[in-house]
Structure formats: structure tokens, C-alpha cells
Design brief:
alpha+beta; elongated
Amino acid sequence: MKSIEERLVNVEVEEPVTIPNADGSTRTIMVKVPALRDPEDGEIYLGSDAIALMDKAKARHMGVLAPQ
């Protein structure tokens, strides 16, 4: 039987990111990020690269991302 690390396959998923607005409301955008999926149970695992992309998208939509 394979360990979980051996079973995981690379996939790309769309994850929701909630963006706060200045008036206190929020909106949600979908961001495509790399992930790992367990084919046995379909569980999706996000790594630090995915979290960084989601944070960057949030900052860009809030207008706080410095130009690079």
C-alpha cells in the first residue's frame, strides 16, 4: 500500500478568496492555484505556493500590492 506522499498527484484548483471592501462588505474571487490531490478520497492539499498566490491576489484586489 502506498503512503499518502506517494499517492498525491499535482493538480490545479480554483480556490475562493474573500476580499474586504472599505465599506465593510466583502466580495469573493476565484484564484487558480497549484495543489495536491489524493486520488483515493479526493482530498485537496494546498501548499505554501498556493497560499502565497492567494495572498498576492487578495493584496492586488485590495490595492495594497506594490508594483514590481
